[in-house]
Amino acid sequence: MSTEADRTGPAPGALLLCRASPGSVAPVAHLLGEPMQLTGAGDEWSALVPEGRPWRDGADPVDRVVTGWATALAVGAPWPVLALWWDTEHAGFTFASGFRRPVGFVWLASGVPVGEDEAMRTFAARLGLDPVLDVQDLGRLTEPDSAADVGARLRGLLAVLARVGVSLPAGLAPGEPADRLREAAVRRPDTVPVAWPDRREAVAERDTVEHSRLGPWMPWTGGPRARALAFAQVAVGLPLIAWGLRRRSGGWTAAGVLLLAHGALGLAYTLTHPPD
């Protein structure tokens, strides 16, 4: 068990990196019901900057919360999500893609790796990184290094991610507190707030999404892709809720509830609005 002297890391914070444009991310991010700022983060990447109320209120640690969010986002959309997180004791990342089990890695605040090497290799393969050069660089992040604290580890991870187009805007640096990240995001001209939309916003976003790549997957289309996604969300949501309740994890439970609700909505719409 760590002592107060070991707690040398930064205040809790997180970033969610989505491999999609902000226009594609916004409609799905609304479903989380968490106030966030959405901004571009490089070619075909977006960054979600959460307000951080769940871990500030002590409901759950930051890693559990953002892992639940990343899982819900990745299941509800055809693009992967990378969650970077940190607190006073450790830091790490979680990568979620589709219905596959999320993978991630953890470092102590001092930079000591406590994750599994295989998880890093799985992460590289799922993200499509170079199996030789990129995996070698990621491998160095899993080795002991007395000169590398947790900040250096996260910067090393971002250096590898830059090769697939990730470019965090100025001020969105891992290790910063959630409120400071949010302030930096708000100052960006391309930033849009994300929260549960009102009726008019929801209608406008629906019209936008119907003409995007996400259109065939949305519940109101009633098409075969929407039905398949709805069934899959219900199938994943139920055991996820049970697992979250058993582990007393609010983040995972919330992710399960989100998936179940979204899937049930899709199935209900299919039954009440059969396609012509």
Which characteristics define this entry?
276 residues; alpha+beta; 2 domains; seven-stranded antiparallel beta sheet; 10 helices; disordered N terminus
Give a structural overview:
- With 276 residues, this protein is α+β, with helices and mostly antiparallel strands.
- It folds into two domains: 4-193, no CATH class; 218-272, no CATH class.
- The protein has ten helices and seven strands.
- A hairpin with a 3-residue loop joins strand 4 (81-86) and strand 5 (90-96).
- Helix 3 packs parallel to helix 10 and helix 9 (224-247) packs antiparallel against helix 10 (250-272).
- The protein starts with 12 loop residues before the first strand and ends with a helix.
- 44% of the residues are buried.
- Residues 1-7, 198-206 and 208-222 have low confidence and may be disordered.
Spatial arrangement of strands, main beta sheet: 6-5-4-1-3-2-7
Which stretches are poorly predicted, pLDDT < 50 over at least 5 residues?
Answer: 1-7, 198-206, 208-222
Mean pLDDT: 79
Question: Helical residue percent?
Answer: 40-55%
Task: Please outline the major beta sheet.
Answer: 7 strands, antiparallel
How many independent structural domains? 2
Q: End-to-end distance, in Å?
A: 61 Å
- Count the DSSP helices: 10
SS-based class? alpha+beta
Work out the radius of gyration: 19 Å
The total count of strands amounts to 7
Shape: globular
Question: Strand-residue fraction?
Answer: 5-15%
Instruction: Provide the succession of SSEs.
Output: EHEEHHEEEHHHHEHHH
